[in-house]
Amino acid sequence: MDINFIIEKFLLVTILFAISLLIAMYSTYAERKVAAFLQDRLGPDRAGPFGILQPLADGIKMFMKEEIVPSNASKWLFMVGPGLAMLCACIGTAVIPWGQDLNVGGRIIPLQVTDINVGVLYLFGVVSLGVYGVMIGGWASNNKYSLLSAIRAASQNISYEVAMGLSIIALLLVTNTLSLKEIVAQQHGWHWNVIYQPLGFIIFMICSFAETNRAPFDLPECETELIGGYHTEYSSMKLGFYLFAEYINMFVSSAVMATLYFGGYNYPGMDWVATQVGPVAAPLIGTAVLFLKIFMFIFFFMWVRWTIPRFRYDQLMNLGWKGLIPLAIANIIITGIVIAVVNKF
User: Fold this and answer.
1) How far is Cα 181 from Cα 17, in angstroms, rounded to an integer?
2) Could you say which of 92, 148, 160, 238 would form a disulfide bridge with 207 (CB–CB 3.0 to 4.6 Å)?
3) How many Å apart are CA 297 and CA 319, to the nearest integer?
């Protein structure tokens, strides 16, 4: 195997891991600043200029806090839970195309860890595995509130994965591929899938809120009923892993929505830009455009959290089973009919 290929993939994986951690870390800062803006407050302003060093202070605090394991907990599983949640959150970035292929000295370097022809199925598999970290942590804590939270999280994820999968089926009818790289390539310029699948995108986005346990779907962490949910008994970096996993999931979900529905790294006039700036700078500009879309989605996640109150659990389940699933099925039928008519004429 080509040693340069191995080095390139290793560097890309390392960079993606570092970026994921950095975005997760500063998402905590952005969360507080967005909340402060919406509530007419200042937010963090002590650690560094404009509070920019607050995430570092929080990280040091997490590392320095005492590591507590409940005496009646299943100790090995208690440690496995947050690690599994963090692992499943990070590996979702592997199939996302972060930009066009780089041409460096005649060597083509793809800005994607791996382009598998079932990339969409891979993402759904990773999403399905993520809830096991929550389930294991809640059960291993030997705490009734943590266990109830874990059961809630599993029920919520299963319920909304159905609607999310159905919304993707309609998208696949349009794209005819499971490869994320091909899906992005088809959205060149302004041919974004959100134009052809607006209802599918709305369903997918709502399900993304539920899958990441973000408000107004944060029932597994409902403080008024379950104290802190599945991480009630956790402290130090084990708690930090759960919190980081949530923000990395939010980052990955934003990247997936931007990739599937908003063109990924594509933007209007990119061919003209490529002729002006060259084959090296053009893919990097596309990557910057993709991250701009991701940050807009992350801001939307935060805006919704501090705007809409938390649902009751029965409302959450009714929306999933009686609202989103019928809409997603109707979207598939309508999409199929439109495609059949277009192909015929």
Assistant:
1) 20
2) 160
3) 22
Q: How many beta carbons lie within 10 A of that of residue 108, not counting itself?
A: 9
Helix, strand or coil for residue 304? helix
Structural domain harbouring 318: 3-344
pTM of the model: 0.93
What proportion of the chain, given as a percentage, has pLDDT over 70? Answer: 99
Q: Please state, in angstroms and rounded to a whole number, the distance separating the CA atoms of residues 225 and 310.
A: 12
Per-residue pLDDT reduced to its tens digit, 62-87: 888 888 888 888 888 988 889 899 99
Give the C-alpha separation, 135 to 298, whole Å: 26
Tokens 């970096």, located at residue: 237
The backbone torsions φ and ψ at residue 103, rounded to the nearest 5 degrees and listed phi first, read -110, 100
Single-letter amino acid code for the residue at 272: W
**3-state SS class at 104:** strand
Q: What is the pLDDT of residues 271-313, one digit of tens each?
A: 888 888 877 788 899 999 999 999 999 999 999 998 988 888 8
Residue 146 has phi, psi (to 5 degrees) of -65, -40
Q: How buried is 70 (Cβ within 10 angstroms: 0-12 exposed, 13-18 middle, 19+ buried)?
A: middle
Q: How many domains does the chain have?
A: 1
